[in-house]
């Protein structure tokens, strides 16, 4: 539960923020602001899901494939979130937002790979 709770809490945050009607949002002049929020939300969600899966010990396959499953879970949650927005006043369900959510999840994986490549390797003698 130590690793699962933050992922569930983050999912709840996404759900609550998707429940806010569009007229309640402040006007932002920066065009891509909403898209950047999507990228951030789902990058963090992928990280939290991956971490929860990696640290569980009951199902070794989930742990072994935690990065891929994290991306899939974040993307599917993004799709359900877009469906949820269909019922929120002034909000719309957009396939492009699901794709941006998937990109956010992939950014996490890209960051992990870049970090691994930049980490110092042990020298062999």
What does this structure look like?
The protein is mainly α and 125 residues long. The protein has one domain (4-17, 33-118). 70% of the residues lie in helices and 0% in strands. It has five helices and no strands. It has helices at 4-18, 33-55, 60-64, 66-85, 95-118. The mean pLDDT is 87.
The SS-based structural class is mainly alpha
The protein's oligomeric status is single chain
* Strands, total number: 0
The fraction of residues assigned to DSSP E strands is under 5%
Low-confidence stretches: none
Number of distinct helices:
5
Shape: globular
The figure for the number of domains is 1
Largest sheet: none
Helix content bin: 55-70%
Mean of the pLDDT scores? 87
Question: Brief description of this entry?
Answer:
The chain is 70% helix and 0% strand.
What's the topology here?
Blueprint (H helix, E strand, L loop, with lengths): L3 H15 L14 H23 L4 H5 L1 H20 L9 H24 L7
Helix pairs in contact: 1-2, 1-4, 2-4, 2-5, 4-5
Considering the chains and any ligands shown, give keywords for the structure.
single chain; 125 residues; mainly alpha; 5 helices
